[in-house]
Amino acid sequence: MDINIRSFLFVIATLVHCSACTNGNNDKETVSTTTATVAHEDSASIFAESEGREGGAAVIEQNEVAVAEAYLIADSCAGPFRIDTVIPKKMEGFDVTKFQEEKIFPTGETREISGCIYEIGNEGWVKVTSTYDAATDCTTDKTSEIFVFSDLFLTAKGIGAMSSIEEYVAAYPDFRIRYIRNERLFVVEAQHLKNVQFIIDNEYYRGDDATLASGESVELQVSDFRKESHFTAIRITK
């Protein structure tokens, strides 16, 4: 609005000045008026382009925030998937496939467990397993375990399934590394991420194998693994 007022006043001033001139100066009036009009159009154009760029940047930022929230790894959840909630039969943006498999429990018993696999095109997939109810010897439709095999999913500090141990440790100083013997898994955990475990590939372990047999859950150090050891998945469980 300020640009329009200034341009208008400038045109008025030019016309007043030219009307005081002799009749032989009509060419100057035309040139001056045209110049003022062009100056106004250029200013408005520049202002519109600047406003458009700022608006576009805001939209991009909003989209980035929306994507980050859609795939956020937080306490007991990975994006739309959460422990103890009903396993969704459909999910927008995912191709859903049902599965059944046998699972060995810590007691040594084997039970058939069902669940769903959610594929994200070429961006990986998420496996959601149902809860086994020992009282009824049946599975329920509630989520008991989530495995994330996609680097789209990140924590609030930018750590994902393809991050390294060093990156995790730098982001979460309260980390803990341990080996779960009955599941044969190396996991990294932090108090800031409740029920969230980052799985380390077994091939990265370079410590003493005898140490792993010393208990059901064995505490380990970063030095027990090769440098730049990366995760293979994220596990969320009860």
Which helices and strands, and how do they pair?
Blueprint: H1 2-19, H2 26-70, E1 72-74, E2 77-78, E3 81-82, E4 95-104, E5 110-119, E6 125-133, E7 138-149, E8 154-155, H3 165-171, E9 175-180, E10 185-190, E11 193-200, H4 209-212, E12 217-220, E13 231-237
List key phrases describing it.
238 residues; alpha+beta; protein yfey like fold; 9-stranded antiparallel beta sheet; 4-stranded mixed beta sheet; 13 strands
Residue-averaged pLDDT, rounded? 81
Tell me the helix content: 25-40%
Q: Give the spatial strand order of the biggest sheet.
A: 4-5-6-7-13-11-10-9-12
As a whole number of angstroms, the C-alpha radius of gyration is: 32 Å
Instruction: Examine the secondary-structure arrangement and name the CATH architecture of the largest domain.
Output: Sandwich
Taken from the alpha-carbon principal axes, the silhouette is globular
Question: So what's the oligomer here?
Answer: single chain
Number of domains: 2
Distance between the termini: 59 Å
Number of helices: 4
Specify the biggest β-sheet: 9 strands, antiparallel
Uncertain segments: 1-48
By secondary-structure content and strand pairing, the structural class works out as: alpha+beta
Strand segment tally: 13
